[in-house]
Amino acid sequence: MTTDAPVISAKNVWKLFGSAPEAYLKGMKPEMSFDEIRADGYIAGVKDVSIEVSRGEMLVIMGLSGSGKSTLVRCFSRLHEITGGTIEVEGQDIMSLSEKELIELRRNKMGMVFQSFGLLPHRTVLDNVAFPLEMRGQDKHARRERALEVIKLVGLEGREDYFPRELSGGQQQRVGIARSLAIEPDIWFLDEPFSALDPLIRREMQDEFLRLQQLLNKTIVFITHDFDEALRLADRIAIMKDGAVEQCDTPDQIVLHPATEYVRKFTEEIDKARVVHASTLLEPGLSGEGDPVDAAASVQSLAKLLIQDTRVAIPVAKDGTVIGAISRETALGILVGTD
Amino acid sequence: MADTTAISATAPMSRSKLASLLVGVAIVLTALQYLGFLPAALHRLPEAFVPDFARYLDAFFNFVKDDLGLFTLTRWLTGLLQTVLDTTANLLFGKRRWPNLGPIPWTAIAASMAVLGYYLGGWKMAALVAVTFCWTALVGQWKIAMETMSVLVVAAPTAFIIGLSLGIAAWKSPAFDRTLKPILSVLQTLPFFTYLLPAVIFFKVGPTAGAVATTIYAIPPMILMTTLGLQKVSPEVVEAGHMSGCTKFQLLRHVYLPSARTEILVGVNQVIMLCLAMVVLTAFIGMPGLGAKLLAMMGSFKLGRSFEIGVTIVLLAVTLDRMSKAWVVKQPEHFERGTPWWKRHIMFLLALGAFVFFCIVAQFVDVASEIGRKQSLSVGKELDVGIKWFLNIEWVKAITYFLRAFVNVQILIPFRNFLLSIPTPAFILLITAFALWLGGRRQAVTALIFFSLVALSGWWDRSVITLYSVISAVSIAMLLGLPIAIVAARTEKWSQRLLLVCDTAQTFPSFVYLIPAIMLFGITDIAVIFSILIFAMVPLIRYTIEGLRTVPPEVIEAAEMSGATRMQKLVNVELPLALPTMAVGFNQAIMFAFFMVIIAAFIGTQDLGQELQRTLAGTDLGKNFVLGICVSLMALTFDLTILKWSSDRKRMLGLEE
Amino acid sequence: MKRSTTALAAGILAALPMAGFAADSSDPIVIPIHNWSSQIVMSNVVGQILEGMGNNVEYVTTDSQAVYESVRLGDVTLEMEVWEGAFGASFRAAMEKGGIVDVGDHNAVTREDWWYPMWTKDACPGLPSWEALNDCAAVFATAETGDKGRYLDGPVDWLKHGKERVDALGMDFVVINAGSAAALWAEIGAAEADKKPVVVFNWTPNFAEAVWPGEFVEFPEWVDGCDKDPSVGPNPDALYDCGNPAKGYMKKAAWEGMEEKWPAAYAVLEQISFTNPQIAEMAKMVDIDEMEPEEAAEEWLAANKDVWMGWTQ
Ligand SMILES: Nc1ncnc2c1ncn2[C@@H]1O[C@H](COP(=O)(O)OP(=O)(O)OP(=O)(O)O)[C@@H](O)[C@H]1O
Ligand SMILES: [Mg+2]
């Protein structure tokens, strides 16, 4: 799925909130902790983050409330001016963009769904969704048609002429989603886009995003508090704490090999059997006999087989060819949670 | 909750001690004065120490006017403004100027405006517009109303645009905001007479000066509301705008301004109301129209006719206000691709059709073009009879006689004499103590400086009399207004009704109250206070109702569940929570009282208003300003103090949004 | 209305032997309007006469005191009613500064003084003598004045010296200043219902005469210098110990440049002279008959051709 050069590439990005953040950053020791910085009257929204997102990838950012997820995404879209480091989008340093170039970039390449929706209170659903198109200067009828299309997609048809205040939280959120869908951006920032949706619609929306991503090869940065959601969507997950990225890896790696104590705690409650796939457990030098299991199968889905089978090593196949084998004991350990 | 009270309990302790100390000194000084031991110089500032501010100011104005060439500039602007005003004047009432088309027949204006009303707000709005315009024409006030409108249609949009631009600028640049804020505060408390004289001097007697004074008077609230609204726009909405690729201008035009719409609307409403209030007052500087007619009617003792003019003004105010609001709320309509042109502009075509139709009709039918006095349906005379009948009712006479004999002679006049007997320094200390106790140290220092300046101005006695009228009127307004408001606030229906009455009372031109006040009470302090009272009660009632009705319902439910009686609920829950909002109303009541006390000079007072009124006849710009600033300084002292208290209190109760 | 104006203009043009005049400027002649009816109607009458002669006329509403400054500067072209008592001071001040000219007196005389409506006489039969008034001072007492009588004087800025006169003549009266003319009327109007005796400041010619018949109080007759020299008048030690002049002038004034710019109009203005009854009638048409000033002016012109035709010749 992922290809060549990264679409977003962040290097040592800092975002400090406070009275004179630039000067403070220059003067401070790089290894200072979040709390030490706070003692000086600054908040490290983003703390020395380096991360890359490749084309077509879905990166999910997780972390406790206030850990800097939204701030990081705002840095990517330059809604925040970063305090230190560099961010490149498609090879271009976004901090060096002129206002005009930035507007062009946002009009044509980026889309964002906001955590608290950010709907324009004075515009109807239709006009809210058509807003980015209007800003681009699209013709009235064309943008109306396009807006109606996406409104239908998010299941709000019939409410085109409602005002945001007349909608429920979930409906408002869908307007926000529809608005970002309207321009079909290449790079998508989604800040807890489904938080207010009921499980059914949430699932539909997730499917829709997956479909779009696969179909159009979109790059998506997705913030969520919901691990299940992350698992359904993520190519990689970044876990943040106090502004810093603790670990950024595939879901399997994160649960199997948490980089820090914090990540371990964070993922403790998760049923690893659902997360870990056969392909992750391949052990070098091991080879098994008999029917292979699919590389993409989760340990949980293999539960029955693992319990009933007697083989020590079970072969794993990808696209029909065997690529290695897993140890049944290790897999069973994950299944019953003893690790 | 517990710890906040603890904190706030310690801080005011020392404050209130200091305040009592100041009061103590003031009492000692006053006692000395009564015993005759106080040197005269401590009682009143000796004339010799009074700096001649008026002359300095005059010198300054002359310098700006002549040496800096401001006069040339303003006279040039006057020419420009005159051209615009002449155009509207020609169209609306046929002044012989370019484009020489007018006057547009009243039926044409009324009909096309009604269509506009329908377009903006449906049948109701159309009916309101039609009623307003037909009334104006039928009572025979069309021409004078159009004289007023010809200035209003220039002044109100100008004030709106300037206010909006300055508001945006203040929001963009905090430094500009900081310099602008104090100026606006002063402008808002400056008596309107102080706007008039400079307007005449710089912009020539007549509609031009009227338009300028009106515009300037209406700008400050527009600026404040714009800034407030823009600051309140949620950052995420702005970010959404950024991410939609808005340019700076698009962001302002499509995101900021519409999101701040509620506040901007309030600003528009204020602009219209102030413009209408001012447009009447500018009659003093030669503005023709409703105001001038009103003054002329009052000058020849025609109560009924002046009352009718008042009604016209209220109707116009309500109509314009509603229309402007509807216009801002109006959503664009969507038409299917390929809708024919005429269908998309059907309303415009209808209005145009009505306009042309009536223009043609008016050529043949005289009443369609103008309703002269002889055809008019004025009921002025009948109203006169009604008013006189009312005043002659025995119990009305009995009440007014009692008020005059008791309240005026036994309470008001002694109170005034007492206030006047307090030595100046003691008076200043009392005010300072009040500001300290209610507001805080900063407010106290401000009060000290402001009132000392008033003392230095040399208009101390008149200032005290002004203050006396204000205090008396506001006190009585509280005694009367609060119970009414509390009772009305119990039900939604009565609240709405009372608020409607308040709105009407407020838009009714202040002058109209004066004559009945005199007829009821003669030329006495009580007539002055009565006319202030009507104005002062409006904000008191409005904010009390608002305060009581916005007490969080869960708090009331909690009180109900604790078994509180209605009275207990009111005293222990609702009033304390509503108090900060009521304080804002109280503050406005004081501001309105300061406004009205100046107008009450027409009854006959010995306060600053009377002197101000006198300056209008001359060219005494310096004196005019000194007097105006005296009023402004006193009003500001109260304004700053009470608002500080209110916001402190709100924060303490956790009511701040 | 428009039609009748043009008819009138035609009438005037027909009646005028215009030959002798140099052409007037086509700039509008600006006529000030104040807030009392006789002045408004009179200004309209004059305006319509001038319009009939082919001049452009425009009316502006101005303050009656500030107008002299405007006339001086040429912002306003003329002023029809310069009352000796009320505006003499402002007029003289403007004359001193220059730019304004005296265009002669009306036939009408003006008087301003203490005045009472007729019903007052019932309570105080000795009127109009001032001594009689003083004897029944108690009749004029109010809640605020105790046993002293109450006299309602004009606004302070009219400088009517009521208080000084009370002191100079040793009267038992308290002087209260009204804030405006309207306040005076309100006071009389309120007294009218049960015919309460009042004594207030008033003047003639004035609409009030028609609404409330009344008389001026007769004070010791005005002698020149009464306001400057204490020895003049009954009280040798005080100023203002006499009544106001019973026959004050009423002048016309104009901007200095008027004669040159609108010579014909100026010539007519010099001729114009109204009498007291004429002025009272004009005021009545508006104040009692409820006409609009312009209509009243038209009507007056139509009914009094013989009067004004003479001025235009
Ligand atoms: N504009 C700002 N000014 C000052 N501090 C800010 C600002 N924006 C964010 N912060 C601080 O930065 C930190 C990170 O905030 P951020 O909104 O990124 O958290 P988050 O991870 O998105 O939390 P949540 O899950 O609740 O949305 C917080 O401590 C917050 O207080
Ligand atoms: Mg967030």
Automatic annotation (TrEMBL), chain A:
Keyword Membrane attributed: yes
GO biological process, one term: amino acid transport
Protein's UniProt name: Quaternary amine transport ATP-binding protein
GO cellular component: plasma membrane
PANTHER family: GLYCINE BETAINE/PROLINE BETAINE TRANSPORT SYSTEM ATP-BINDING PROTEIN PROV, GLYCINE BETAINE_PROLINE BETAINE TRANSPORT SYSTEM ATP-BINDING PROTEIN PROV
SUPFAM superfamilies for this protein: P-loop containing nucleoside triphosphate hydrolases
Catalytic activity: a quaternary ammonium(out) + ATP + H2O = a quaternary ammonium(in) + ADP + phosphate + H(+)
Subunit structure, interactors included: The complex is probably composed of two ATP-binding proteins, two transmembrane proteins and a solute-binding protein. The complex is probably composed of two ATP-binding proteins (TmoW), two transmembrane proteins (TmoV) and a solute-binding protein (TmoX).
Compartment(s) where it occurs, according to its Swiss-Prot or TrEMBL record: Cell inner membrane
Gene3D superfamilies on file: P-loop containing nucleotide triphosphate hydrolases
EC number: 7.6.2.9
Species for this entry: Planktotalea frisia
CDD domains: ABC_Pro_Gly_Betaine
Record has Lipid biosynthesis as a keyword: no
Automatic annotation (TrEMBL), chain B:
Domain spans labelled ABC transmembrane type-1: 145-324, 463-642
Protein's GO biological process: choline transport; glycine betaine transport
Domain of life: Bacteria
Pfam families: BPD_transp_1
PROSITE patterns linked to this entry: ABC_TM1
GO terms of molecular function: amine transmembrane transporter activity; carnitine transmembrane transporter activity
Tagged with keyword S-adenosyl-L-methionine: no
Keywords for this protein: Cell membrane, Membrane, Transmembrane, Transmembrane helix, Transport
Predominant localisation class: membrane
Cell division keyword on record: no
TM region(s), chain numbering: 21-42, 103-120, 127-145, 151-171, 183-203, 264-287, 307-324, 345-365, 385-406, 418-438, 444-460, 467-491, 511-541, 577-605, 625-643
Membrane topology summary: Multi-pass membrane protein
Cellular localization per UniProt: Cell membrane
Assigned protein family: Belongs to the binding-protein-dependent transport system permease family.
Name of the featured protein: Glycine betaine transport system permease protein OpuAB
Automatic annotation (TrEMBL), chain C:
Keyword match Signal: yes
Keywords: Signal
Span of domain ABC-type glycine betaine transport system substrate-binding: 27-302
Endpoints of the signal sequence: 1-22
Xref: Pfam families: OpuAC
Superkingdom to which the source organism belongs: Bacteria
GO cellular component: ATP-binding cassette (ABC) transporter complex
GO molecular function: transmembrane transporter activity
Protein name (database record): Glycine betaine/carnitine transport binding protein GbuC
Originating organism: Planktotalea frisia
